[in-house]
Design a protein that fits this description.
- Helix 1 packs across helix 11 (313-350), helix 2 packs antiparallel against helix 9 (256-298) and helix 11 (313-350) packs antiparallel against helix 12 (360-385).
- This protein has 13 helices and eleven strands.
- A hairpin with a 2-residue loop joins strand 7 and strand 8.
- Strands 1, 2, 3, 4, 5, 6, 7, 8, 9, 10 and 11 form an eleven-stranded mixed beta sheet that branches.
- It has helices spanning 2-16, 19-57, 81-86, 112-115, 129-133, 159-164, 205-211, 231-243, 256-298, 300-308, 313-350, 360-385, 388-394; strands at residues 61-68, 91-100, 105-106, 122-125, 137-140, 154-158, 173-177, 180-188, 201-203, 221-226, 249-254.
- It folds into two domains: 2-54 and 260-394, no CATH class; 70-247, no CATH class.
- By secondary structure, it is α+β, with helices and mostly antiparallel strands.
- The longest helix is centred in the last third of the chain and has 43 residues, at 256-298.
Amino acid sequence: MRRVRELITVALVGLFARKVRTALLLLGPTIGVAAIIAAVGLTDSAKGDLKRKVAELGTNLIEASAASAFGSQNPVLPTDAVERARTVVTVDGVSAVRELSDIVVTPYEEATEKFEVVPVPVLAADAELPGVLQVPMISGRWLDPFDEGPGVRSAVIGIGLAREFDYLPGEVRSIVLDDHEYAVIGVLGQVELEPAFDNAVFISFRAADDDFVEDDIQPNKLYVRAADGTESDTAEALKVAVGLGGPTEVNTELKSEALELASQSDRQLQLIVVAMGLLAIVVGGIGIANVMSISVIQRSSEIGIRRALGHTRGTIALQFLFEAIVVGVLGGMLGVLTGVAAIGVGVAMAGWVFTLQPVLVPGGIILAVAISVLAGLYPAVRAARLEPLETLRLG
């Protein structure tokens, strides 16, 4: 027992007496473990936030869009598409929109030249859209039957566009759509399931028909809320109900699937960063082997004296292996702390919920120790093979 304590003391003194060398040894395990912890923790935190958003927004929002029509480059749905969608018994709510093209949106007429190169989506929408999307109004109100009246030019803008145009809540404000001035009556909140809406302008179908559409206006998209658990069946039923008897093909998409795809891409990024972390640990292990091999030569006199005093080759090898274990433990602990700090900074900046798998903490330390021990085997064996007389030549 006394010999073990002496061995540990000698190993610790050997490490901390050479602070710069020890710091270099710690870099590899620290960087590698930190990269792995941060990559897994940040992507898990992002996935947790994604799951929270899906739980809040629901997985039952379906987008039904016109896919094709004979000889038409801008396919549209039937005029009565909303009524057709409501015939599907599993539909809880439905709203129609029409995406309008080639409209220049500016905060005021004098700014047209600045903003005409910025593509701002303009959509005709009905009164049900915020309810179906389950998105609140940040300011003002949504379009209502009054805005469907003749000559009424009212617009609701997305929260992103409101920020870009420096809109103040409650401000009496207008925007220009081509040559037509529209009064801003409200700001729609952030639409997680349809991010393009954050920078869009919404007007009534009547205003769109009067100012921008030559023929009778028809929707080209429906947003549908299905009963929970019936999303797939409802999506298939909508294709038949909306497109039946017409030339238009109807495509449907579950909007929550976009978030799930984002989660998968985060997973791929996680694997890439974890692989980079493992590479850093392996490179760090090679560095440990190199530095400790040089240390064997530099400490040859010490090894020779200890051999002359009766220390066995096994004792010398254990000393160097123990130094490698200490490097692994310290490097692993520093890596875990650095990785956790990186997760904390990341989730604070992104507004996520901090998530860290408990197994990562001991796992990171064990991985660092394993790499350090493997890297320390060759220097330990080399030190153990040195004979007292040989150390005089090396020293």
